[in-house]
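Entry type: protein chain
Record version: 2
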Amino acid sequence: MNLLRWTAHLAISLMLLSAPLAAVADSFDDFDQLLDRFLIEKSLPGNGLVTAFDYEAALNHSETDNLISAQRQQLAGFDPSTLEGRAESVTFWINTYNFCTIELILRYYPIQPKWWNILYPDNSIMQITGAWEKEFFDIQREEYNLREIEQDF
Protein backbone atom coordinates (compact mmCIF):
# COMPACT_ATOMS: atom_id res chain seq x y z
CA MET A 1 0.00 0.00 0.00
CA ASN A 2 1.62 3.22 -1.19
CA LEU A 3 -0.53 5.41 1.08
CA LEU A 4 1.24 4.37 4.27
CA ARG A 5 4.28 6.31 5.41
CA TRP A 6 6.09 5.51 8.63
CA THR A 7 6.56 8.13 11.34
CA ALA A 8 9.21 7.19 13.88
CA HIS A 9 7.95 8.64 17.15
CA LEU A 10 4.21 8.02 16.83
CA ALA A 11 4.18 4.96 19.06
CA ILE A 12 5.82 6.98 21.82
CA SER A 13 3.36 9.82 21.43
CA LEU A 14 0.45 7.44 21.61
CA MET A 15 1.71 6.09 24.92
CA LEU A 16 2.25 9.60 26.21
CA LEU A 17 -1.06 10.92 24.94
CA SER A 18 -2.82 8.24 26.96
CA ALA A 19 -0.99 9.21 30.15
CA PRO A 20 -3.03 11.32 32.56
CA LEU A 21 -1.05 14.53 32.29
CA ALA A 22 -3.60 17.30 32.73
CA ALA A 23 -1.98 20.30 31.05
CA VAL A 24 -0.82 18.29 28.06
CA ALA A 25 -3.89 16.11 27.47
CA ASP A 26 -6.22 19.00 26.65
CA SER A 27 -3.58 20.66 24.48
CA PHE A 28 -3.58 17.86 21.94
CA ASP A 29 -7.28 17.08 21.46
CA ASP A 30 -7.17 17.95 17.75
CA PHE A 31 -3.97 15.98 17.16
CA ASP A 32 -5.51 13.07 19.05
CA GLN A 33 -8.48 13.15 16.68
CA LEU A 34 -6.11 13.05 13.69
CA LEU A 35 -4.33 10.04 15.17
CA ASP A 36 -7.62 8.30 15.97
CA ARG A 37 -8.77 8.71 12.37
CA PHE A 38 -5.61 8.13 10.40
CA LEU A 39 -3.15 6.11 12.47
CA ILE A 40 -2.95 2.51 11.35
CA GLU A 41 -1.43 -0.26 13.43
CA LYS A 42 -0.03 -3.41 11.88
CA SER A 43 1.02 -6.50 13.79
CA LEU A 44 4.32 -8.08 12.87
CA PRO A 45 5.54 -11.62 13.43
CA GLY A 46 6.91 -12.16 16.92
CA ASN A 47 4.43 -9.82 18.62
CA GLY A 48 5.83 -6.74 16.89
CA LEU A 49 3.72 -3.69 16.15
CA VAL A 50 4.23 -0.96 13.57
CA THR A 51 2.25 2.26 13.37
CA ALA A 52 1.75 4.32 10.23
CA PHE A 53 -0.07 7.54 9.50
CA ASP A 54 -2.28 7.44 6.40
CA TYR A 55 -1.36 10.80 4.84
CA GLU A 56 -3.39 10.25 1.70
CA ALA A 57 -6.60 9.52 3.64
CA ALA A 58 -5.94 12.53 5.89
CA LEU A 59 -5.59 14.83 2.89
CA ASN A 60 -8.82 13.51 1.42
CA HIS A 61 -10.83 13.96 4.63
CA SER A 62 -12.91 17.12 4.98
CA GLU A 63 -12.02 17.74 8.64
CA THR A 64 -8.23 17.47 8.40
CA ASP A 65 -7.58 21.15 7.62
CA ASN A 66 -9.77 22.24 10.54
CA LEU A 67 -8.03 19.84 12.95
CA ILE A 68 -4.57 20.97 11.78
CA SER A 69 -5.52 24.63 12.08
CA ALA A 70 -7.06 24.18 15.53
CA GLN A 71 -4.01 22.26 16.78
CA ARG A 72 -1.66 24.93 15.44
CA GLN A 73 -3.65 27.62 17.27
CA GLN A 74 -3.57 25.54 20.45
CA LEU A 75 0.22 25.21 20.26
CA ALA A 76 0.72 28.87 19.39
CA GLY A 77 -1.17 30.02 22.45
CA PHE A 78 0.02 27.33 24.86
CA ASP A 79 1.20 28.60 28.23
CA PRO A 80 4.31 26.62 29.28
CA SER A 81 3.80 27.62 32.92
CA THR A 82 0.93 25.11 33.03
CA LEU A 83 3.38 22.21 32.60
CA GLU A 84 4.04 20.47 35.89
CA GLY A 85 7.38 18.73 36.02
CA ARG A 86 9.60 16.91 33.58
CA ALA A 87 7.06 14.25 32.57
CA GLU A 88 4.56 16.83 31.32
CA SER A 89 7.29 18.83 29.60
CA VAL A 90 8.68 15.78 27.78
CA THR A 91 5.18 14.68 26.82
CA PHE A 92 4.35 18.13 25.48
CA TRP A 93 7.49 18.38 23.33
CA ILE A 94 7.28 14.82 21.95
CA ASN A 95 3.67 15.37 20.94
CA THR A 96 4.53 18.79 19.53
CA TYR A 97 7.37 17.31 17.47
CA ASN A 98 5.11 14.53 16.17
CA PHE A 99 2.31 16.92 15.28
CA CYS A 100 4.69 19.31 13.49
CA THR A 101 6.24 16.41 11.57
CA ILE A 102 2.86 15.14 10.40
CA GLU A 103 1.68 18.66 9.57
CA LEU A 104 4.84 19.29 7.52
CA ILE A 105 4.48 16.05 5.58
CA LEU A 106 0.80 16.79 4.91
CA ARG A 107 1.76 20.24 3.63
CA TYR A 108 4.13 18.75 1.03
CA TYR A 109 2.37 15.44 0.32
CA PRO A 110 2.80 13.87 -2.14
CA ILE A 111 6.45 14.68 -1.64
CA GLN A 112 8.32 14.99 -4.90
CA PRO A 113 11.59 13.05 -4.96
CA LYS A 114 14.79 14.91 -5.68
CA TRP A 115 17.08 13.35 -8.25
CA TRP A 116 20.10 13.95 -6.01
CA ASN A 117 18.43 12.38 -2.98
CA ILE A 118 18.12 8.79 -4.20
CA LEU A 119 18.99 7.35 -0.78
CA TYR A 120 15.49 8.06 0.53
CA PRO A 121 12.17 6.77 -0.78
CA ASP A 122 9.54 8.92 -2.46
CA ASN A 123 7.25 10.66 0.03
CA SER A 124 9.96 10.59 2.70
CA ILE A 125 10.36 13.69 4.88
CA MET A 126 14.03 13.45 3.89
CA GLN A 127 12.95 14.59 0.40
CA ILE A 128 11.69 17.93 1.79
CA THR A 129 14.52 20.43 1.44
CA GLY A 130 15.14 22.13 4.78
CA ALA A 131 12.49 20.12 6.65
CA TRP A 132 14.38 20.40 9.94
CA GLU A 133 15.87 23.87 9.63
CA LYS A 134 13.80 26.03 7.28
CA GLU A 135 10.22 25.16 8.25
CA PHE A 136 9.05 26.97 11.38
CA PHE A 137 6.14 26.35 13.72
CA ASP A 138 4.54 28.83 16.11
CA ILE A 139 4.66 27.27 19.58
CA GLN A 140 4.17 29.12 22.84
CA ARG A 141 4.27 32.45 20.99
CA GLU A 142 7.75 31.60 19.63
CA GLU A 143 8.93 30.07 16.36
CA TYR A 144 10.70 26.71 16.37
CA ASN A 145 11.91 24.37 13.69
CA LEU A 146 11.95 20.56 13.99
CA ARG A 147 15.68 20.45 14.77
CA GLU A 148 15.24 22.85 17.71
CA ILE A 149 12.30 20.87 19.08
CA GLU A 150 14.17 17.59 18.70
CA GLN A 151 17.48 18.70 20.19
CA ASP A 152 16.65 21.50 22.62
CA PHE A 153 13.74 19.96 24.44
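Comment: Strands lie at 4-6, 39-44, 48-54, 136-139, 142-145.
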